[in-house]
Amino acid sequence: MKPYQRTSSLKKVYRRLPSSKTGVIFRKKKQGVAKCAMCKKPLRGNVGSKQRMFGGYLCHKCLQNLIKLSMRGIS
């Protein structure tokens, strides 16, 4: 096994080769669903959206609560 293949970020997939032997193919793992940093619920819409403050990091309800608390002066 080559050094770059010794990582947990790659997934081993066993495939039958044309010579009727079984070979190993390394593929990247699928990324999980993006979740809100506060409530851990899955984010909706465009995951990497930077259109608004904390876009792709907080859901809209947690961001709304955070803005309310900051305007009230509560940390």
Estimated share of beta-strand residues: 15-25%
Mean pLDDT over all positions: 87
Run of helices and strands: EEH
Biggest sheet statistics: 2 strands, antiparallel
Strand order of the largest sheet: 1-2
What does the radius of gyration come to? 21 Å
Number of strand segments: 2
What does this structure look like?
This protein has 75 residues and is of the alpha+beta class. The protein contains one helix and two strands, in the order ββα. It has one helix at residues 60-72, and strands at 10-16, 22-28.
List the helices and strands and how they pair.
Elements: E1 10-16, E2 22-28, H1 60-72
Antiparallel strand pairs: 1-2
Provide keyphrases for this structure.
rod-shaped; alpha+beta; 1 helix; 17% helix
Task: Describe the structure concisely for a colleague.
The protein is of the alpha+beta class.
